[in-house]
Amino acid sequence: MKRKGTIMVFEPSDPSLGPEVTYATETSRKSFRLPRPKKEQPPVAIESFAQDPVRYAELMERVEDYLLGFQTGPSGK
User: Fold this and answer.
1) Separation CA 73–CA 64 (nearest Å)
2) Are the C-beta atoms of residues 34 and 62 closer than 8 Å to each other?
3) Residue 11 burial (CB < 10 Å; 0-12/13-18/19+)?
4) Strand residue runs (E) in 29-75
5) Residues near 21 by Cβ (< 8 Å), separated by ≥ 6?
C-alpha cells in the first residue's frame, strides 16, 4: 500500500490512554486516539528502534487497518 501522507504516533504519559495517531497529507490532517485494550501491555516507547520489531509491525498494521476503514466507509473514496 502506498501512503499519501505521514503517520506520527505519540504514546501518552497517562497509561490509561491509548496512543495518539496523526495522519497528515498535503491538504489535511487527522488526529485520533487508539483504544488501549485492558489486557495489552503498553509499549515502552513508540519509536520503531525501541520496540520489538514484530510488536511494532503489529501496532502499525492496526493503525493502517484503522485508516483503511475510513477509506472504505460511507465518506471514503
Assistant:
1) 14
2) yes
3) middle
4) 29-33
5) 7, 8, 9, 10, 31, 32, 33, 34, 63, 66
Q: Which three cell numbers stand for residue 20?
A: 495518539
Locate 33 and state its grid cell: 486516539
Which pLDDT tens digit goes with each residue over 10-65? 988 887 888 999 999 889 999 999 887 777 666 665 666 667 788 878 888 888 88
Residues in a beta bridge with 8: 22
How far from 43 is each of 20, 25, 50, CA to CA, in Å? 13, 27, 9
Task: Round to whole Å and give the CA distance between 71 and 13.
Answer: 30
What pTM did the predictor assign? 0.43
